[in-house]
């Protein structure tokens, strides 16, 4: 994944918020590099890591939903959903809909796990000072995943060395990570 952001989508209500979500669902927006991970593999992770039975969810706010960007994605989602239904011998109740609009959730919903490490947040804010820069940062997404138990700092540093930025900037980012008090 390149960027992950929390927000509201799947509905028609104008300007949803956490307290007035209307007919939207809390969602995770993922931007990914298809040269690194395929959409099929992302779907595999999606189907394997949640219960696709809508009956378990009390309100639309928390339903199982997957939103697609184009027809190719829709076809693949429906194909994998059918395969899973055949395998489980039950109907998958995950809603499949086009992503017509995504509203970014309030800042207190963003990078939730990283917030438990104030020194990391403070240091990341020195290089990503605006909310948009911070919430859209690949590095911040990686560190948020790291503190949740996904990946290692070593892997993040190795990945930084492959980014399309100067060696000087790569070194600055790695030095900044090394300076964080975890």
From TrEMBL:
Its EC number is 1.8.4.11. The keyword Oxidoreductase applies. One of its GO terms (molecular function) is peptide-methionine (S)-S-oxide reductase activity. The keyword Oxidoreductase applies. Keywords: Oxidoreductase. Residues 4-116 form the Peptide methionine sulphoxide reductase MsrA domain. Belongs to the MsrA Met sulfoxide reductase family. This is peptide-methionine (S)-S-oxide reductase.
């Amino acid at each position: 994944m390149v960027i992950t952001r929390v927000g509201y989508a799947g509905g028609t209500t104008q300007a949803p918020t956490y307290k007035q979500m209307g007919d939207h669902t809390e969602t995770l927006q993922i931007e990914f590099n298809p040269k690194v991970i395929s959409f099929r593999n992302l779907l595999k992770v999606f189907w394997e890591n949640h219960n696709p039975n809508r009956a378990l969810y009390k309100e639309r706010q928390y339903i199982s939903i997957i939103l697609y960007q184009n027809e190719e994605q829709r076809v693949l989602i429906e194909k994998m959903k059918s395969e899973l239904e055949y395998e489980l011998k039950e109907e998958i109740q995950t809603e499949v809909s086009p992503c017509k609009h995504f509203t970014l959730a309030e800042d207190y919903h963003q990078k939730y796990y990283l917030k438990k490490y104030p020194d990391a947040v403070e240091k990341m804010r020195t290089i990503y000072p605006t909310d948009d820069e911070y919430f859209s940062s690949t590095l911040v997404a990686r560190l948020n995943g790291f503190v949740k138990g996904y990946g290692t700092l070593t892997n993040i540093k190795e990945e930084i060395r492959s980014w399309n930025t100067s060696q000087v900037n790569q070194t600055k980012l790695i030095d900044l990570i090394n300076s964080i008090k975890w």
